[in-house]
Amino acid sequence: MNKEFFDNGFFIAKGTPMHGVKHCMYFTILVLMEWGYKLLFLLARKQKNKKYYISICSIFKNEALYMKEWIEYYLMIGIDHFYLYNNNSTDNYQEILCPYIEKGIVTLVEWPEVPGQITAFRHWYEHYRNETNWISFLDLDEFLCPTGVDNISDWLNKFKRYPLVMVYWKMFGTSGKISHDTTRLVIEQYYNCWPKLTSLGKLIFNTNYEIGYYKVDMMHYFLAKWRSLKVPPINQFGHFVLFGIHRHSKNYDIQLNHYWSKAYANYEAKHKRGSACWGTSWKTFDKFIEYENHNTACDFNIYRYLLQLKLKIARKYPN
């Protein structure tokens, strides 16, 4: 079985571990560069007020079952707007999205390209970038979960001068389920997870800057442009990420819950559907088992939002 991840003591990290002189050299360079970046961005201009403060851009296919929960959750923690790209769905996504479109909460774009993810992100950048201060390219199985504050905008405020912020995945598996229970929320029924964060995650992009380049997996990592300088992301711990080095502190106040498989039947459907990024699926059964075998812990941090979310979905939340 191909081992994609290793445990570095804090993260379940992706790739090959760096050791010895090479690691020391890159680490020293990164620390020096980090001081330079932080001094530089003390002089960076403040954000101009735009129509939305923070938005999400996502491409989806046949995920109507989870849309309402996902949208209502993010509205609850402070997301202002959603740019959603439909990639050849055949389910009732229009029925689910119609009320949000009418209220101006969702901008829906029909996007039939296969693979369509990066071209959709480029389309967003060219047409909607000036509408929002911040954007994150998230999927419908990803839930930003603040643990230190209640509102994502409050958390993000401390990074307001930086071009990119990286938030790390917490991987959630099947919780032993063969079939998904459609009467229960995703965040309620999947709590079995990896014991540590992964060194993969997603970025939140400050539109005051420019995207430095486009690549297939750019939603995980890219460089931003400020004048002639290309700048790496700063992570949720306040350290810049470069050379595959992810510096961290012991505690964290946010995580990105990634319900990547849900129940086994959902994994099978996801595998057949293929990747919006690559066109074909990389989610082989061996990889599924490798990911599932890491699920040795339980995480209920997101449960603090569960009652509120149920009330909002049922339209019983007090005014």
Structure commentary:
With 319 residues, the chain is α/β, with parallel strands linked by helices. 29% of the residues lie in helices and 22% in strands. The protein contains nine helices and 16 strands. The protein has helices spanning 20-41, 64-76, 93-102, 117-128, 152-156, 186-189, 264-273, 285-293, 306-313; strands at residues 5-7, 12-14, 52-60, 81-86, 106-110, 132-137, 142-146, 164-171, 192-193, 201-206, 210-211, 224-226, 229-231, 234-235, 254-258, 297-298. The strands form four sheets. Strands 3, 4, 5, 6, 7, 8, 10, 14 and 15 form a nine-stranded mixed β-sheet that branches. A three-stranded antiparallel β-sheet has the order 11-12-13, with no helix packed on it. α2 packs parallel to α3 and α2 packs across α9.
Which features characterize this protein?
nine-stranded mixed β-sheet, three-stranded antiparallel β-sheet, about 325 residues, alpha/beta
Mean pLDDT across all amino acids: 92
The helix/strand order is EEHEHEHEHEEHEHEEEEEEEHHEH
Q: Could you tell me the strand content as a percent range?
A: 15-25%
Label the structural class: alpha/beta
Shape: globular
Whole-Å distance between the termini?
53 Å
